[in-house]
Amino acid sequence: MPMGVVIVTGASRGIGRACALRAAAAGYQVVVNYASNVEAATEVVSTIIAAGGRAVACRGDVSVEADIEHIFAAADRMGTLAGLVNNAGIVSRSGRVEDYTIERLQRLFAINVTGAILCAREAVRRMSTRRGGKGGAIVNVSSIASVLGSPNEYVDYAASKGAIDSFTVGLSKEVALEGIRVNAVRPGMITTDIHEASGDPGRVERIRPTIPMQRIGEPDEVAGAVLWLLSAEASYCTGSLLTISGGR
Ligand code: NAP
Fold it and tell me: For residues 29 and 230, is the Cβ–Cβ distance under 8 A?
């Protein structure tokens, strides 16, 4: 029986890449969305196809509504949408709130919050049984920053993930009777390129000792949880915020 299509936003690198590879291994057809790094996205698709899976790369900025429509149109061409991993996200340079500019805030919230909500809207339009869909699952990639607040680093990023947590809970209740489960993962410090954007090269090593497990997580350790939340194994799980942070 076909598993259906899963869209992973920001799937060319890091946590999204690991989710795309795991989704394909689980039998889903995968839309590998990326913003600009076509080489990385092509590598993910090639890896999936070489392993016998099905995937397409699809460029699109989740802060642009027309690009989101383009990403979902790519999924529609592949088959029936079964899931969305709302993973694309950015941080800004480390700094204090008193130094923020409106441009920084608008870009961050457009990608991390508005983009994720618009992607979820498109997924609900396709998956809701109320609209003739077959149901499905949405997994939002939040962050443990939503709980910790990230003072002196990126309080704005933490707040954007707080919005994702609230959105997850609210949407899960809204579509609970429509065959759609909505959950979030809250990763702690994970080995990806995202930390370079902070402009603070010592940050990861400074934080490591504060993690009870005293190590940085791997993208695949987040992807395993994401794929469980997408799967029928998580059939009674909705509105959950699953922390994956080494105990932080
Ligand atoms: P990453 O390694 O920096 O990768 C970011 C991915 O998102 C890339 O595929 C990038 O595409 C894509 N992307 C960036 N802006 C986009 C946009 N506007 N539209 C569509 N795609 C876009 O990031 P990551 O660390 O894997 O983070 C993934 C998610 O996990 C984010 O939501 C992040 O907040 C969350 N998270 C990460 C950590 C961590 O420690 N790494 C911890 C907690 C939460 P290109 O390759 O084309 O640039």
Answer: no
